[in-house]
Structures are given as C-alpha cells and as structure tokens.
From TrEMBL:
It comes from Macrosiphum euphorbiae. Belongs to the HARBI1 family. PANTHER family: DDE TNP4 DOMAIN-CONTAINING PROTEIN, PTHR22930. This is DDE Tnp4 domain-containing protein. It is found in: Nucleus.
C-alpha cells in the first residue's frame, strides 16, 4: 500500500469521526442578565441624568436637547425590526452606547456591563452607528468649499480673527495609533515606532473641519500622505475653484490665497509653511513665523479638542482598520456638529488658543494632543523648493512687517 493510500484512509477516518461527533448544544440563547436590558441598561441612568444637566453633558459630550436632535437625525438609519424571537436594540440604546464608546474609549467587553449589550453585538452596532452618523452629518456639517465666494468667506474670517489675509484653511495631519491587524506585518509601522493610520485635516478659523481624510497607513512617507488624497490631486489640477491672487483689503499689496501648514508639508505658491529654525537669521522671518503660527495653531487646537472630548483617541484603537475609519470620520463630523450646536459645553472658551497681547504671553495653549495617541507627521527636508513658492512666502513676510503689521507682534518674538 502506498503512502497516498494511507493518507486517504486517514482522511476518510477523520471525516467519519467528525460526522459522528455530536455537536455541542448551546446552553442558552443569551445570558440571563443580558435579557434584562430594560432593567439594567445605562439608558435608565440617562433618564436620571436628565435632572443633572452637567452630568448628562459629561456622559455623552452634549446636552439633552442636542442629543435628542442628533437621535432624530440618525434613528431612521439605525432602526432595526423586532422579530418573533426577540426585540431589537432601539436607536436610543445604539446611539447612546456609541457616543459613550467615543467619549471614553472603553473596550466592547467593558461597555457590555453598562449597556447590557453583548460585546459581539457592540462590535457591529458601534461601527454601524458611526457610519450612520457620518453619512447624516457630513451633508450639513462637513462640507468642502466649492466656489470662490465660499473660499473668500473662509479667508475673511481668518483675517478678522487671526490677522492672516487670504488664508483659506489650516492644514495638518496626525498619526492615530492602532493595534495592527493580524498578518499586516510592518504595513502600519511608522517612523515613531508605532503602528498607525493617518488623519489629515483642513480647518477653518472657527475650529471646524472643512476636510478630513483618513486611512493612509502609517508606513507611507508623510509627503505621500498628502499626495494620496483627492484634495491634493484637485489642487494640482486647479479644480478647487480657489480665487486668483488679488489685493489685500485696504492695501495695494496683491497676494494669492493660501493654506497654512507646518514643516511636514511642501512649500508651494498655494501652501505656506514657516522658515526653519536654522534659517531664522533676521527679524522679518521671525515675524512671519509668528503670524503664520497664530493661524496654523487653529488646526492643532481642533485636533486637541477632538482628542480631549472623544477619548477613544487616548487609546491604541484595537479594531479592524475599516471600522477604525468609520469611528474617526464620525468623530470629526460630530466635532463640527457640536461646535455649531453645543459650543459652550463641547468647546468652552478655555479650549481655545489665546494670547495676552499686553505682555506678549500665551494665556492658554488650548486643548492639546500631548496625552492622546495622536502624533505629528514627520518634518520634511526642504529639498528643492520652487523660486515662485519662496517669493510668495517673502511677499507675505514683507506685508506682515509693513502695512500688515499688528501692534503686539514684536512682543511674541525672541
């Protein structure tokens, strides 16, 4: 008898054993305490917290009226039908547990004891609800400018609040630490020695995201993060309807409309970044860096508010990448929604970057990302920079040091 015959006999024998083996019967449809959701669920706690508004806000990161409004918007997308076997988990329970997950970053296994929903069910409910939140909120609260008028409105607000004319957004990116999926190897391994995915954000002067792009794995070079976006492709092809250069209001100086960013991004005619510290050999460059920093800090502050309010960003997110994307995008959309509808509780004045222009000190750095799992993109080498881009930066520098000066700027430079 050949070796092949022996293997065939062994396989047949194994098949017979598996066929005759009795399938282990499931002892229960569900654990008894999970069937008592009406009694033990945290929605009962929410009913009590209604009489303590500050505790309600802290629990879900919004007041009751804002929560009810949000629930009415998302409920049609997350409503499930009851069956003859059991009653479905209500939209109220689904939304509340999702918001609590975002607010705390607790594991599904931990959340099941307060929500009285199994961790397996939470693994489906939370990403589904996040996806529904993003789809509902992006239509009104996460809209990207499409006309010259909209871009000019953004620039006007930056000039009024941060004395930076023709600024159409502050751009930055953050590495979000994750637990890498099995078998991914070094795909998500970044230069800081962590596994991550990258969140790219463009923010207006009101700390609201105009654009968020998430999903690039941390291994991609930081220059490649921007280049992989549809936003950058359209920017290169001049398809964003950005206004042409024109005169600053009240001045004869003509300057282009630009995005402000840090050293992780390229210097372009439509993208300004600071002079490197080693190149600060004159007063004018220091003034430019200070003025640019005032406008650029808005995006840093927005990330800080996001991470401090949704403390899932303080954890190493341990979910498969596609579901992480839904969680991050929903968080950004919720950030904008709450800035508009619940600003005093979600982002009070203490959250924001402020300066004391009387003595040249920063009174608050705003919420930062120091204690979160967000890490800055790596700084790029200058490389070859087009002369036209350098000239645009120098034009802004000259404006800030002459007719565009502000009385306190000298107090903020060393």
């Amino acid at each position: 008898m050949s070796v092949l015959d022996d293997d065939a006999i062994a396989l047949v024998g194994l098949a017979l054993i598996l066929k005759n083996k009795k399938q282990k019967k499931r002892e229960k449809w569900a654990k008894d305490w999970l069937l008592k959701r009406k009694i033990y669920s945290h929605v009962n706690l929410l009913n009590e917290l209604r009489f303590e508004p500050l505790d309600f806000k802290n629990y879900l990161r919004m007041d009751e009226d804002t929560y009810r409004n949000l629930l009415s918007m998302v409920a049609p997308l997350i409503q499930k039908q009851d069956t003859v076997m059991r009653k479905s988990i209500s939209p109220h329970e689904r939304l509340a547990v999702t918001l609590r997950f975002l607010a705390t970053g607790r594991t599904y296994e931990d959340l099941k004891y307060t929500s009285v929903i199994s961790s397996q069910a939470l693994g489906k409910i939370i990403p589904e609800t996040c996806d529904a939140l993003y789809r509902v909120l992006r239509r009104e609260y996460l809209t990207f400018p499409t006309t010259e008028v909209e871009w000019k409105d953004i620039a006007q607000l930056f000039e009024e609040r941060w004395n930076f004319p023709h600024c159409i957004g502050a751009l930055d990116g953050k590495h979000i630490n994750i637990v890498p999926p099995a078998g991914s190897g070094s795909e998500f391994f970044n230069y800081k020695g962590h596994h991550s995915m990258v969140l790219l954000g463009l923010v207006n002067a009101n700390y609201q995201f105009l654009l968020v792009d998430f999903g690039t794995n941390g291994r991609i070079s930081d220059g490649g993060v921007l280049q992989n976006t549809t936003f950058f492709e359209k920017l290169l092809n001049e398809e964003l309807n950005i206004p042409c250069a024109d005169n600053i209001e009240g001045s004869s100086k003509q300057l282009p409309y630009v995005f402000v960013c840090d050293d992780a991004f390229p210097l372009r005619t439509d993208m300004l970044k600071p002079f490197r510290q080693s190149h600060l050999d004159c007063y004018e460059k220091k003034i430019f860096n200070y003025r640019l920093s005032r406008a650029r800090r808005i995006v840093e502050n927005a990330f800080g508010i996001l991470a401090n309010r949704f403390r899932v960003f303080h954890t190493q997110i341990n979910i498969e990448p596609k579901k992480i994307e839904k969680i991050v995008m929903a968080s950004c959309a919720l950030h904008n929604f709450l800035i508009v509808n619940s600003a005093t509780s979600y982002a009070p004045q203490k959250c924001f970057y402020q300066e004391d222009i009387a003595n040249g000190s920063i009174t608050t750095l705003g919420y930062n990302v120091e204690n979160s799992n967000m890490h800055s993109l790596d700084r790029r080498n200058s490389g070859n920079i087009a002369n036209s881009a350098k000239q645009v930066r120098e034009n802004f520098m000259n404006y800030f040091c002459n007719e565009g000066t502000v009385p306190w700027q000298n107090k903020f430079i060393a």
